[in-house]
Task: structure prediction
Amino acid sequence: MQVQIQALLAAQGGVGAGGAGIGPNTGAHIEVAKPAIFNEETGKVGGFIMACRLYLKMKMRGTSVEEQVQWVLSYVQGGSADVWKENIMEELESGEMEYETAEEFFTSLRKKFGGGEEESVKAVELRKLEQGGKTMEEFVQEFKRAARGSGCEGRPLVEEFKRGMNGGIRRKLMEVENLLTSIENWYRRATALDRNWQESRREEERLRKKEIGGGTQKQEKQSLL
Result:
């Protein structure tokens, strides 16, 4: 892993004095500043993540998530940050941990060094979530991402999920004989109910089109008589 990080640094032009530097022009002559070295200072984690996010977007869009995480880790140096970095690298190498997106890694970084900042941000995001026009499967995945690291769990988490889902599905679930308790049961039952409803809608639409088509054919046949 360390060799891979060194190779990425070499490919990106290395780290300048104090960690700041200018990235290579992989775009149309666009220069993007690299982040300063992050050494676990709580007040600087937000700025560090913002700088990394911008660089990844502008200069490393085509790279894998693993490469992006390794690159960010190369700028995490000093104090307990080194210990945390080594643990993350070992878990990545052993396959114990895997990030689907760079944002998931940034969430864990902010949670570790943000002094509770990440938890409050995620809690606010969770309270704003609503299903709207999304399928329940989409809403559940979005809700899970927001819930992770929010500090909300147990009954309060269930209540937030109930609040965010569409009213029709919520009422149906509240009518069940055995009231659901765990959040995982709410996820499964809500998804199944929404899937059945979506299938029913598609079947009704198919039958409606068939009836319209049959009526049109009948009218055409009568006009030929």
User: Anything to note?
Assistant: The CA atoms of residues 91 and 142 lie 25 Å apart. The radius of gyration is 25 Å. The first helix runs from residue 2 to 12. The mean pLDDT is 80.
